[in-house]
C-alpha cells in the first residue's frame, strides 16, 4: 500500500515570483511623508487623573520626581530637564525644592544665563527679595559681561523704591566699562529722580570711556536741555580740544555751530565754521560748506555770503587740480637722482611709501620699502617698514623684518626688545623668551643694561620668579653694579612673603661685602641707604640698628692737585666716607671720636 501510494504523488514545485520592477514606484520621500501624516492623525488624549487624597498626591509627586531625576541622570547637561523639574516643583508650591534644583543646575553649568534669570524670577515672584539680591550678586560676579543680569538687577531695585541700591548696582556695573546703552540707562535713571548733578557726573565718565563724537554731542545736548548754556558750550569746547587736529569730524562742528545759532551767537558760529574749514580736510567738509552757506544766507551780509562761495569754489578747484600720478613721478625722479651707495634720505623713501598707502596701493608701498632696505639699509627704514606691517596686522611679515633688521644691526638693543614685545603681545611667551636669550648672549650691545632690565621685567610680568632670580644671578656674574644689587633685593621684597624678605636681606648683605673694595664709596652708601629703607618698611628695630651701625661718617679731607704737566697746583678739599665695619677705618674712627670729645670739652 505504501509503495502504491508513493507512486501516485508528484513533488510540489515553488512558484517563481515576478522580479520585474513594479509599474508604480514608491520613493523614500513618499514613505516618510505617509509616516508623518499618520503621526498627525488625531489621537485621543490620555485620561485626566484626579487626585482625591494626600496619599495619592504623595504617590503622584514621587512618581514625577523619579521621572525628572531619571531624565537628569541620563543627561545632566541638558538644561531643559532642569528647568522643567524646577518649574514643576514651583507649581507644586515646593519653593525650597525648586530652589535646590536651581542650585544643582548651576553646579552643572554656572555660565548658563537662562538658569540665572529663571532662578531670580522664582525668588522675585515669591517676594523673596533678599534671596533675589543674592542671586543677582552671584550672577554679576560670575558673568559681569552679561548685561541682562545688570538690567534686571537695577530694574528690581528701582521697582522696590530702593534708588540708592539701584545706583550702587549701576556703579558696580560701570566699573566694567560696559557698552553705551548701559551708561545711558544709568543717566536716564538719575534723570527720572531729577538728579541732574549725578547725571552730569555719569556723563563725564561716559565720554571718557566711550569718547565718540556722538557721545560728546549727547552730553552737550543734555546740558542745553536743562538750560545750562555755558556748560553746554564748555562741553563742545572740550570735545574740540580732546579730538585735536587729527581726529576732528565735521559732525562735531556742525552741532557746535547749530547750538550757537540757537543762542543767536552768530559771530561765534562764523568763527566755528572758519576754524573747522581750516582744520578738516576739504574732501571731508561737504556738510560744513553746506551749513555755513545756509547760515550766511539767513543771518549774514553780502560780504559773508561771497566769502563762503569763494571758499567753496576754491575747494572745487583744489580737487580738480589733483594729479596723483605726477606726485608718484616726482618721488621716483628724486630717488633716481640720489646716489644711494654713498648716502640716502630715509625720510624720502618713507614719504613715498606713505603716499602709496594713502592711495591704497599697499603692494607698491611694500615694494618701495623693500627696495630701500635692499639698497641702503638704515634703522629708520626698518622701523618705518615694521610700523606699516603692524598697522596692517601682518605679524608674520613683521617677524621677517625684525630678523633682517637684526642681521643688519645685531648691537641694537631696542630692536631686540621690540621684537620680543611683539611676540609677547601675540601670546608666544616662549618665543619672546628665546629672543631675549639670543639678545643677552650677543658679544656686543649698545645698551646692555636696558636689555637686561627689559628681560627681567618680562619674567616678572609672567610671574616666573625663579627665572627672574636666575637672570639676576647671571647678570651679577657679569657686573657688580650697585643698581643691580638694589634691584635684585627690591624684587625679592616686592613678593612680600617671609622667605622673600629674608632673601632680600641676604642680598643686601652679599652686596655690602661685594662693594667693600669699590673705589666709588658713594655706591656703597647708596646700597646702605636702600637697605635702611628696606628695614624701615619690612624689618624690626634690631635689623634696622644693624644697618645704621654700618652707615659711614662723612669727613672733609685735603689732597694735592697737579696739572697735566705734573706740576703742583695747590691743595683742594673733598669729602670722604669712613665705614665703621672696615677694619682699616677703625683707627680713623677712634681719632674722630677723640677729636669730637676734645672739641666738646673745650666748648
UniProtKB/TrEMBL annotation:
Keyword annotations: mRNA processing, mRNA splicing, Nucleus, Repeat
InterPro entries: HAT, HAT_Syf1_CNRKL1_C, Syf1-like, TPR-like_helical_dom_sf
Domain Pre-mRNA-splicing factor Syf1/CRNKL1-like C-terminal HAT-repeats: 78-300, 321-471
Pfam families, sorted: HAT_Syf1_CNRKL1_C
Nucleus recorded as keyword: yes
Origin: domain of life: Eukaryota
Compartments where located: Nucleus
SUPFAM superfamilies per the UniProt record, alphabetical: TPR-like
Matching PANTHER family: CROOKED NECK-LIKE PROTEIN 1, PRE-MRNA SPLICING FACTOR
Membership in a protein family: Belongs to the crooked-neck family.
The protein's name: Crooked neck-like protein 1-like
Source organism: Saccoglossus kowalevskii (Acorn worm)
This protein's encoding gene: LOC100378408
